[in-house]
From TrEMBL:
Name listed for the protein in its UniProt record: Diacylglycerol kinase family protein
Family annotation (CDD domains): UDPK_IM_like
Family: Belongs to the bacterial diacylglycerol kinase family.
Gene Ontology MF terms in the entry: ATP binding; kinase activity; metal ion binding
Cofactors, names only: Mg(2+)
Amino acid sequence: MASQNDHQITKNKNFCQSLGHAWDGIIDLFKEERNFRFHTCAAMTVVVIGLILHVSLEDWSWLLVAIFAVLVMEGVNTVVENMVDLEVGHHYNLRAKHIKDIAAGCVLVTSFFAAIIGCIVFIPVLLRLV
C-alpha cells in the first residue's frame, strides 16, 4: 500500500510530466462528468454534420470556438463544484448552492452561445440544400 509520501507535492519536473497530469485531468473529467460526455458527443455530432455539409473555413472557426468554449466551461464548472464540495463537505450550505448554481449557469449561457453559432452556421447551409 502506498503511503501519503509517495504522492507528488512538488512542481512538475518537465513539460512531459505537466502534460501527463493535464491528460489525467481530461480523462477524469470524461469519466466522472456526465455533462462533459454529453457535450463531447454533441461536439462530435457537430463536427460530423460540418464535414457532411462542407461548411466554410470561417464557419469551422466559429464552430470550433463554440465547441471548445462549452468544453472548457464544463471543466471550469467541475473545478468550482469540486472546490465547493471540498470546503463544505457533504453538508447543505446555501452559499455553496449559490456558487454551484452560478457556475452551472455559466455553462448554460455558453451552451446557448454554441447553439446560436450552430444555427447561424447550419441553417443557411441547409436552406441552400432545400
